[in-house]
Fold:
Amino acid sequence: MPTVDDVLEQVGEFGWFQKRTFLFLCLISAILAPIYLGIVFLGFTPDHRCRSPGVDELSQRCGWSPEEELNYTVPGLGATDGAFVRQCMRYEVDWNQSSLGCVDPLASLAPNRSHLPLGPCQHGWVYDTPGSSIVTEFNLVCADAWKVDLFQSCVNLGFFLGSLGVGYIADRFGRKLCLLLTTLINAVSGVLTAVAPDYTSMLLFRLLQGLVSKGSWMSGYTLITEFVGSGYRRTVAILYQVAFSVGLVALSGVAYAIPNWRWLQLTVSLPTFLCLFYYWCVPESPRWLLSQKRNTDAVKIMDNIAQKNGKLPPADLKMLSLDEDVTEKLSPSLADLFRTPNLRKHTFILMFLWFTCSVLYQGLILHMGATGGNVYLDFFYSSLVEFPAAFVILVTIDRVGRIYPMAASNLAAGVASVILIFVPQDLHWLTIVLSCVGRMGATIVLQMICLVNAELYPTFVRSAGAACGGNDPAASRDQGRGAAGDHRGRREPPEESKAQRKQDLPPGANVGTQRPLRQQREEREDPGAVGWGTGAPFPVSSALTCPTFSKSYGILSLSFFLFLFLFSFFLFLVGAWPYFVLFCSSPPACGCL
Structure:
């Protein structure tokens, strides 16, 4: 019986249908960029000082220049450690009294300004920026500066919590339905964030957006990797992540053109609604349909792929089947990743690499936004380095292997980050160069981990390791049929791989046939007992979560996400429209449109 990969070899592994679907789904990857790193522009903190009543009137009466006004009325100017005093403290002076002169008005109150009493800002702040951000609108500075970090932490928390339920929905109800559902909630919550009337509601909507946005990205990734042949999965996986880099480059330009944070958030959220047209443009994964015993629907989709690619389907298409005849499934659990010494070693190393590189990647980007330079150009230049990073991976992945490029990139990222600690603030160009080097190294490591992780774990725990080690969901099938790749990037012939698997398996086990559940568990104890390329089509939930999903947990997850959807839709209809009307009735600040 032909498998999906067998049919794709005849009708086209990366034909017109796959190329069109790939371009469609790349929009999902690009849309994640403003959600993941939009805080650089949404939460930009400009130079600021306390607002003092009477200063504007006195400055206008005396005809002060902006520099003179700052020199006469703002404490802490010129001091090396006076940033806090300059931005968060003010002179406790009544600037409306008539005794103040136009030349050094504070001289009549005290011969030395350091003797004047200082107090906290009580009347707000003045921001030196032509645009606006959540910082300037909600005054998230000084004592409330931590709320900017909380805004981004809600997105990251949403990524983690959302993966616990989105994976089950994709497994139980299909990749396409999961993609459409998460896309709809993502679009609605993005619009609600743009029209949020206060900080608390904005935080809740941002958390909701984080709950579904990573699941939407993962569903799109899974769909495209299941549509292409085994020879193209690795390239498509890398290029799909390059679309995320394209979204970062576009974000810098859009943010420069739209300096108002509400209009910026609305601009990057509205295109998400276009992804709802995937209902008519993108079919369901035939591999998932086969795993659900919906062979007729899978045959129709494969026949449609053949027609779109201009090829004739094979005569035995109606006998389409999975790579293996799976009659009982063994769901991985978190404990499986620590059963043997080799598994424990691989798990801890990959978890450490994934965590450190993810923190380093986001930290370098946020650091560049706080260096005091041109945040738009800095973000743009640093985003460009991700393209040569993808090129390096494509060139070295099958020539040099995984270990050496990953080790060299990790070393470069670490050294660049350590040097950044000792770079003076006035050497802005050196800060940018080191940040770009560190970001390029972190990007290479993160994408390399996705491939290495799939090849170090045995079949039945490889998907569980995907979540804890940061693996891409479909990478575990990169070696699915023709050849098996080892962790150095070499490929061995199918016959040798199959013969090796027969030697590794316990006596009586047959390659390509379903083995008893107890025997599978025994094989799982030893990472060398299962071949690298024997895995059946994987479930998305295994690639997203570590715990085993029970039926009750799945129902709870589905109910939770339905509640989130209904809750966000209710807020959109009842609570958000008045703010949306008020928001649109007034022109954006600074004439940005």
Q: What stands out?
A: The mean pLDDT is 74. Strands lie at 48-50, 89-91, 118-120, 125-127, 484-485, 491-492.
